[in-house]
Write a structure and sequence with these properties.
Length: about 200
């Protein structure tokens, strides 16, 4: 009889311990259960944006200009994953158009000195997002692209010929200060695709 009573007490203690452990585990893992992990979200970790258009992968795409009606240079990188040469056509505001040839299984860095991709009109003032139309063969898409100016030193060299960088209030055009990226957190000045690769 005593043996049976002992077993009931032990079973009760074990059940209470299991409940306590379960509650502890829930409190520890609760945040991960409710909130999605940030590492599972894809985002562009620079000032530019990314897009895929068929076999073309566009990375860190942005327009550098001093004004909405001023010429704008498209910067970033285009990767061609197919075994055929391709041409990316970018249509901006007011009939502005530029094209980017990309060899098969290769990449074109728009940040290089030669063959700059220039739109005759940026379509938006620095700090804004402009919609551009992208096409390559039978593929087409629209993309919202940020317009940047030369107030950050790393973008000054990409301003189209004749454009002068504008300084933001309280800073100079030559400052390489930290700035806020897409996530809203202060970051170091972004590297260009030619520096960071794919």
């Amino acid at each position: 009889m005593r043996n049976t009573a002992m077993n009931r007490v032990q079973r009760g203690k074990l059940a209470m311990a299991a409940v306590a452990i379960g509650a502890g585990l829930l409190s520890v893992t609760g945040c991960g259960y409710i909130n999605a992990q940030q590492t599972s979200h894809q985002y562009a970790a620079s000032d530019g944006v990314k897009a895929d258009l068929g076999s073309l992968e566009l990375r860190n795409i942005a327009i550098v200009s001093t004004g909405a009606d001023k010429p704008g240079r498209v910067i970033g990188a285009v990767f061609n994953q197919s075994s055929s040469d391709a041409t990316l056509v970018i249509n901006g505001a007011n009939g502005a158009q530029t094209s980017v040839p990309v060899k098969a299984k290769s990449q074109t860095y728009l940040n290089e000195e030669s063959d700059a991709a220039i739109l005759s009109s940026a379509g938006g003032n620095p700090g804004s997002l402009v919609t551009v139309s992208l096409s390559a063969g039978s593929e087409s898409s629209k993309l919202q692209v940020p317009v940047l100016d030369g107030s950050l030193v790393e973008y000054q060299k990409y301003l189209p010929a004749g454009a002068t960088p504008t300084a933001t209030p309280g800073s100079t055009a030559s400052e390489g200060a930290t700035h806020k990226g897409e996530s809203g957190h202060a970051t170091e000045p972004a590297t260009t695709p030619s520096e960071s690769g794919h």
